[in-house]
Amino acid sequence: MRSILIISLLGCCFAAYEASIIPKCELARKLKAAGMDGFHGYSLENWVCMAEHESNFNTRAFNGKNANGSSDYGIFQLNSKWWCKNNSQPSANGCNTMCSKFLDDDISDDIACAKRVVKDPNEMSAWVAWVKHCKGKDLSRYLASCNL
């Protein structure tokens, strides 16, 4: 009985660190509700495409392997050199927040930061995955089944 309790407690701890994937259409609804459709000239399809290719819709995605020593956080893979503070390297902290805030299931702060990023001169091109997989492509399939 004691071992079952210990295993159950350990399972709860590990579950907290598991990926949290937002279904594509649910993400599209959240983005639309946050005013992202057409924000700074980019359609909802662009945002969904970018999120898919940056994080595979994982709100807890983390990439600590950038060549410049920076890390990327959350569903939009927001970079620690430019957009958030991670206490391990200098940061412009353009979104004025701790990077760890982008690793939870509340994506409202991620969305607010993405709005800040796209206002920068690079706009959506700040996201390499968007340039590679979404820019100038037919993105109609991204929301075709979503009934928005």
Short description:
By secondary structure, the chain is mostly helical.
What this model shows, in words?
With 148 residues, this protein is mainly alpha-helical. The protein has helices at residues 2-15, 24-33, 44-55, 108-118, 128-133, and strands at 62-63, 72-73, 78-79. The chain has a three-stranded antiparallel beta sheet with strand order 1-2-3. Helix 2 (24-33) crosses helix 3. The termini are far apart.
Widest sheet: strand order? 1-2-3
Tell me the radius of gyration. 17 Å
Number of strands: 3
Mean pLDDT: 90
Q: What's the total helix number?
A: 5
Q: Let me know the largest β-sheet.
A: 3 strands, antiparallel
Q: What form results from the Cα inertia axes?
A: globular
| Straight-line N-to-C gap | 49 Å
Secondary structure: helix percent: 25-40%
Low-confidence stretches: 1-17
Element-level helix/strand string: HHHEEEHH
What structural category arises from helix and sheet content? mainly alpha
What are its keywords?
disordered N terminus; globular; 5 helices; mainly alpha; 3 strands
